[in-house]
Design a protein that fits this description.
This protein has 424 residues and is mainly alpha-helical. Helix content is 48%, strand content 3%. The protein is built from 20 helices and three strands. Strands 1-3-2 form a three-stranded antiparallel sheet. The protein binds a DNA duplex (16 and 16 nucleotides) through helix 11 and helix 15. It is found in: Nucleus.
Amino acid sequence: MGPIIGMSPDKKAESPGLLEDHVCAQASCRAAALPEAECASSPLATSVDRVSGAADEELTNLNWLHENLLQNFTLGGPEAQASPSPLFDIEGRSEHFSSSPASSACSRANDQDSLKSKPPFSFSLLIYMAIEQSPSKSLPVKDIYGWILEHFPYFSSAPTGWKNSVRHNLSLNKCFRKVEKSLGKVNGKGSLWCVDPEYRPNLIQALKKQHFPAPHGFYTPPASPPSAFSPSRNLFLQGCSLKESDIDAATAMMLLNSAPGHHVNPSDPDIPMDLSRPDSVLVSSDPKQDHNYSSSSFQRCSSRSSSSSSSPTSLSSLDEGRGGMAREDSVQGLWAGSEGFHSDEDSEEERSPRRTPVTPRRPPALKCSPPCKRVRREARPELDEELKEAAGSLLHLAGVRSCLDLSKRAVSAVKSKKMEKFWK
DNA sequence: TATCTGGTAAACAACA
DNA sequence: CTGTTGTTTACCAGAT
């Protein structure tokens, strides 16, 4: 990702939160009314065990914010997704980071840090977070600004160029789609933006990947958003540190939460978007796909040079990254109110009411198939089932109670392998 | 070294 | 007219 992911050594050096975090980790374990023994025996304690003896790794290899995101986005379920600050731990309990004086102190310390440090997330991820944490899963630009400002005070003192970057991302990044505020209203000033469900898994994977960019690049507390993310951080600080497998499990949980019926938007049932279509969720194990969450490859396909994105690899991976499933209905359901939105059958130009038709500047879209003309696989309900089973297996490994049928877990590992093969 | 990716700046148009 | 929003292009830096 971008340069802001891996913090430069000097930045790391100026990160006082590092030591504090370690202290807070111990403090909050107690403060969270969790006996240390329980911390150790918590479902994720296996991860702790794995990293035991490597305190350095514990501090650097773990990104509380990711955990938080994954917690927020995955473990909280519908309530968490709908709540602006869903604080759910692995058991589904909710708790507030501020409940502990010790953790509050940490929080304050990190507030200070967050004021001066750049968030370790790309703009696309920031936008994604903002949108995903909104009750309606869609936000106007202004609210996206607001969310970012609220959670990343860094930007309040940053030059206003970041807003341009946000808009730039919204426009350019195909992960985000513009929907009309009201169906009858022609696009006036300000539209709602939401995450394209097809790219959601890619964004998730980007988050996931950001969790493990480089051996040194995981310490991100200075940019820690003080409010909404802190609770899960508290969770993390309880010692329930996760490793990649656990993140996978958390991601899997998201898949589960994304399954039909799992994701209900209680606050806004009228929202036409269905971000939870399981067929729009695919987390690939292919690291090459990791960057495909972004439209960048598409960007290059459409607005930059055609050299890179038209490569077979990028096309195929894009195809996979988008799940390759029959998302047509999903997308249509999601965008059913967005005038002019077409299914993925459409070519790049066709599907872009968001792009003003009066933009001769836009070069004739190179026939980059992927999102535009991607090869679509048949919808496979059984695949969803397998997906759930695989997720259940992962969760089982992580010690996370899942709602899956336990009897299916026995075969889940095998089936997950099957899935891998299928997606290859 | 080439390419990819993300950040930033800027120009421009449309709209309130 | 001004400010906001949305789109696009260009350039740069870091990572791969």
